[in-house]
UniProtKB/TrEMBL annotation:
Keywords: Hydrolase. InterPro entries: MBL_Glyoxalase_II (IPR051453), Metallo-B-lactamas (IPR001279), RibonucZ/Hydroxyglut_hydro (IPR036866). The keyword Oxidoreductase does not apply. It comes from Leucobacter luti. GO terms for molecular function: hydrolase activity. Residues 40-204 form the Metallo-beta-lactamase domain. This is Glyoxylase-like metal-dependent hydrolase (Beta-lactamase superfamily II). SUPFAM superfamilies: Metallo-hydrolase/oxidoreductase.
Length: 225
């Protein structure tokens, strides 16, 4: 009789999926068009065939739930509190039977969209999340908003940057609660310290790479916010 060992089951492979959602924000707010401003957002799924983490929940909870499918959702992680990143968070959490995480310094912005309803848990600098054999760590990167964060996945050579860093420069700092010097410090200390080949997956638009953005720092400083 054979004495061969039973072949080990393959480990599900963690990968990144992008969903592009669109919708209107600021509907009915003074100074904005009656029907709001139309935006496209990136929603990121990090997971395997069994479990997934969602980064940002923008505009379309049904589309997010459809992309997740039958997988277990381990959490909805929000990069910051702006409407276009959180407006589908509560509905998506209900559809996916999961929890919402947001840095507490952005609760005042979150409340503009969700009123008295609160996220389930507070994000803190250094908080980690596990999906499969991949760990995401939270980095507090204020500037765009006081509670902006990025999520670093070293094993995937990727950082999910929200609206902190884009292809071509930092996120907007036009609000009273924003700070251009602060976002520059956040990028220098929390993102430009990552390996040069780290892929940057932002909240809008296409990806970039850390080494592609580093040489432009002086030009960002020259143009200011």
């Amino acid at each position: 009789m054979g004495t061969g060992r039973r072949k080990a089951e393959p480990v599900p492979q963690v990968h990144i999926e992008r969903i592009i959602t669109s919708g209107s924000i600021g509907v009915g707010r003074p100074g904005l068009p009656v029907d709001g401003i139309q935006l496209e957002n990136n929603v990121w799924l990090i997971g395997d065939s069994e479990r997934v983490l969602v980064i940002d929940a923008a505009h379309d909870a049904q589309a997010i739930a459809q992309a997740v499918g039958e997988r277990e959702t381990l959490g909805i992680l929000l990069t910051h509190g702006h409407e276009d990143h959180v407006n589908a968070a509560l509905e998506a959490a209900q559809l996916l039977d999961t929890h919402v995480y947001l840095h507490p310094e952005d609760l005042f912005i979150w409340s503009e969209t969700h009123g008295d309803a609160l996220p389930d848990f507070e994000l803190t600098h250094g908080a980690t999340f596990q999906v499969g054999d991949i760990e995401l760590s939270t980095r507090h990167t204020p500037g765009h908003t006081p509670g902006s964060v990025c999520f670093v996945a070293p094993a995937l050579n990727t950082v999910f940057s929200g609206d902190t860093l884009f292809q071509g420069g930092p996120g907007a700092t036009r609000w009273d609660y924003s700070s251009f010097p602060q976002i520059i410090t956040s990028i220098q200390e929390s993102l430009f310290t990552l390996p040069a080949a780290t892929v940057v997956q932002p909240g809008h638009g296409d990806h970039t790479v850390i080494e592609r953005e580093q040489p432009a720092l002086e030009s960002w400083l020259a143009r200011g916010q």
